[in-house]
Amino acid sequence: MKRVLIALLVAIIYHAEAKAWPNMNMMVRRSPLETLLPKNVHTLTDCMHVTSEDGIFTYRKVRRSSSFNSANGLHLVEMEPAEQQVCGVYFMTDPDKIIEVEVEFSDVSCDLGGLLGFVDGWELNGEYFPNINDHELPLEQRVFEFCDKTSSNPFIRKTLRKRKFISNQNGAVFQYKIPYQGSFAISARYVHNPKPCNIMAEGVAPFYVLQNYGSSRNCTITALFPAVVSILALDVGVNKGSVNYDCDHQNYFDKVIVGGSNGLDSSQMTKSAGICGTSEIKGPEQAIFCGVTSIRLESSGKHNNKVYVSLRQADENDMNLATAVCDL
């Protein structure tokens, strides 16, 4: 009787395994990378990479060399010269979002002159968005630089310490300088910002909103192109029921400044107009023929200022609307 039960049990197990094998074969055919790796992995190839995508961003540089035999029979190895170029991943997202960047892995040696960095905002040619007068933090609390220290003991593995950085606006930069060799992987995601102030504009939105939320602060919209600007509506300062386009002097502490510059520093911009007052009627178009267009809301903190702005890219047909032109 026991032998019959054992035989029956073996037959049941064999039958169950036979049914399970087809499913196992289907699982084996799938690459494990499909489930282990995230789908949005971006390999960096350009020195200046501008993106609004999230996910993992990776970069790897291998030191190249060439070998040859000299005339006297010696075998020589020639290493490629070091590159001191600073590259960057320039993140830009929606106006009401901020950027969170986390260093997942880095192997960028300090001894080889490597350097990684994060900028709360954008940096180009030594100029910053937002400029030092518009950002709520001093520059030394916005720029972070680091690299990996190599242990002298080859048997001691370097411990990985993740770093996380968060921007205060919808633009940020992760910079890297790798002269010889190194690699890193960073992750980026975008988080809702309930009170946006400084905005990097792509120029595709129907309008943008600048608001001080009752605080004493400057808030700026920056577009990296010549633009035609219109004030759609505003409530700025003490003048109620009218609009003044001549508010750019010391008697007006709350105002909207429209202008442009050749760099990111909007504090040095060529001004088109200083506007204050209240209106729900669209104002005249102003063409700013500069490399960078800026609309800055300056607030004393005594008023809840708010302005709605539209902008579009300017072309040669808008020259009759020009109110500010920068030297090229």
User: N- to C-terminal separation?
Assistant: 100 Å
Give, in order, the helices and strands.
HHEEEEEEEEEEEEEEEEEEEEEEEEE
Global structural class: mainly beta
Percentage of residues in helical conformation: under 10%
Question: Explain this structure to me?
Answer:
This protein is mainly beta and 328 residues long. It contains two helices and 25 strands. The protein is elongated and about 85 Å long. Residues 1-36 have low confidence and may be disordered.
Key attributes of the depicted protein:
single chain, 328 residues, mainly beta, Jelly Rolls, 2 domains, 11-stranded mixed β-sheet, 5-stranded mixed β-sheet, 2 helices, 25 strands, 44% strand, elongated, disordered N terminus, disulfide bond, corticotropin-releasing hormone binding
